[in-house]
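Input record (one chain):
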Amino acid sequence: MPQFDATIKHIKEGVKSMSISAAVKNIEGWEATLEKVEDPGAKTIVKDLENLKKHLHAKELDGEAIRKLVVKLGKETVTISKKTESKNASKIQALGEALTSAAESATAE
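The corresponding structure, as predicted from the sequence alone:
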């Protein structure tokens, strides 16, 4: 299981402070976990994480496309947190909220 607290901490500190390789490694950990989840919402998140990795590996980063994708991931993560009965539901929701908040604050910068 990925490190919820570590991921949330990185997001709240500002994702711009993360290296591309660290971000991709974190994304790959989430993909590996979500691929085991039997929920259509999880499959959508995995596809969006793949798309995010592609954006991060581009020669020139498209900040607006990345921001929109992170907002979408945040909303999808909050939605899936409401469907799960796992002990991590509150952490999943907190992760989604952190993603949304980070992306929205990036608009203000």
